[in-house]
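Progress against Task 2.4 (sequence-to-structure conversion) is shown through the following example record, which the project officer requested during the mid-term review.
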Amino acid sequence: MQRSSREWLFLLSMGSFLVLYILWPLGGMFLRADWGIVASSFSDSEIVGALWRSIWTAAAATGVIALFGTPLAYFLARNTFRGKSVLEAIIDVPIMIPHTVAGIAVLMAFSPKAPAGALLTKAGLSPVNSHLGIILACMFVSIPFYVDAARDAFYGVSPRIERAARTLGAPFLSVFFRVSLPLARKGLISGLIMSWARSVSEFGAVVIIAYHPMVAPTLIYDRFATFGLKYSTPVAVQLILVCLGMFVVLRLLAAGKRREDEER
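Structure tokens generated for the chain above:
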């Protein structure tokens, strides 16, 4: 066996442990699930509603994060200043703290007794036990996944290309939208996917601020606590199938767009 083949075989054999560690529990869940209940659950309006609520609230949270996180990520990638490491650490705080703590923090910030919560309540937007509460919780825990990926994507864009465009008379916004964003698109898309996926799967923060209306993770917990594994597993199986399907579609779309760009 050639040296390069042995090296690749070693790397693959070592890395396959983690892949198997993911597949083993998931495969066991699929094999042990009662597929009669799983099939009937596809017509369960409560399950379908929770799944759809998870999808669109996660998309809404990701959209808000992308709107404000993209300029922040670009600023971090293009500037070095005193306190930058502190700012980056603050952005990463939601990754480090328990998500129940994150939920309590969001609840205290947006409860009707807090200034921000009082303003939202006066505007007719209830931040507790509402879709807004779900979005607020999802935003808090998902921010680092997009901002970090977007910052690294902008790091990969050469500032010299941007300066060349500026010297040709293009204004900053034109360079940003027509040069920087397209060149960083791959990383930005990856960040969007990861941020959305984190929001879809969030339980700890959401259950603190909005137990109702239920999203899929909350419904899974509720059915497990009430009925046990037999009736919570079908919801878990559906959530995995939905997330896996959307992951595959989004990755394929991103890969197809990348191939088109390479052919040009």
